[in-house]
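Q: What does the predicted 3D structure of Ppx/GppA family phosphatase look like?
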Amino acid sequence: MVRLHTDKAMVRLAAGLDEERNLDPAVAERALEALHRFRPVLTDLPADHVRVVGTNTLRAAANADGFLEQAESTLGVPIEIISGIEEARLIFSGVLAAGDGPPRPRCVIDIGGGSTELVRGEEKPTKLESLYMGCVSFSRRFFPEGEIRDKKTNHFERARRAARAELQGLQHMAADVDVVGASGTVKSVARVLNGGDLGTIERDAIDRLAEQVASARRVADLDLPGLEEERRPVFAAGLAVLHAIFCELDIRTMSVSPYAIREGIVHDLAGRLHGGDRRADTVAALMESSQIDAAQARRVGDTAVALLSSLREDAPREKTQRLRWAADLHEIGLALSHSNFRKLGAYMVENADLAGFSRSEQEHLAHLIQNQRGRIKSPREHYGFHPDPSLLLSLRLACIAHRDHTDRDIGDWQLSARKSGFRLSIPQVWLDRHPAIEDLLYQEAEHWRDQPQALRLQTD
């Protein structure tokens, strides 16, 4: 990996969430100003070479839609909101990309603004955790006035105890493996302890630093060599979380990686562009673990993609991939129930931790799986989630064509899109050979009658 350009802005978006989880307009504006500065870097890049990811704050914000609309307009590319577990996976991938020797078991720890990720693995993650604690959220919670201690309370100690409570039961994450820290909080502590360098963090050294910070009166009073001024407001909270991790997980030494989630995102994107899409591996693993009929998934997928091509010759690769994956997983709910397999399958796909997928991608897949047959349920649309009726129709027709799990040639079908809706033309002689499918197709036309784009079935 060769880094050609780097820029960053410390926005502290998590500081803008109020008690109702609404994002403060002033903080949102600060973030948008940073994005304006980044926009020129993206101007000449192909759209599929750009990936923008939103993490904990945008997962939590109740009013994120308005901000996302402005942010995407500013950048000119979509923003993917990812889960905490996906964030952890990308962090681990970024740390591995640093190439610090042969693969070995390790625990990677990253303290962000609103969440803390812990990942254990070797060449790939085997255990992933995302905890709702970070340097910004803990600053707001325990140091809102900038006081570290007053006459009654040691706020640093309260923050450290709260962090230790969050870590209960996770001692196994760092047992008998190398421990690696990543991102801002870990780097800032390392620099303070190592004269400005990213050296290792030793247990004795961080113990002494924690005592020193806990004895200060205010955040503004901290006089620590190597502490960057922009990091000062959240340093005490970040240190409290990191020291709690050392204590609760009994860590003696932590090395520091120069790479983290940004490099993980780049590494993941490179895989998508060059035949190593993590999402495809995730779908394949799901199919195997759920004992999905691979032959049926293939025949439905082939037919659905062919139908989509007749509707949209220039269908984007992402659309075709999504349709294929929906076909691969359309029967996943059968592992739990035959009568409610669509609803349960959609729930599984939308709520599972699917490596490589963003939240909106999982919502789209779930929508297709739930509506593969029967009455079409109108989804709760929000920013970033606008279902494509072409994908849904292609999947539904493919499921009809192969309802009996049989290979069937639909070369005589002609599907087209018009201003008034969709039209499916099939020779009557073909329908006469498949009377059950003929009935299902007429039912399908009825299901689309009240949709914005109706389906008209034409025979000749």
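A (community wiki): The structure tokens above were generated from the sequence. Residues 84-260 form a domain with the Nucleotidyltransferase; domain 5 fold (CATH 3.30.420.150). The two ends are 58 Å apart (CA to CA).
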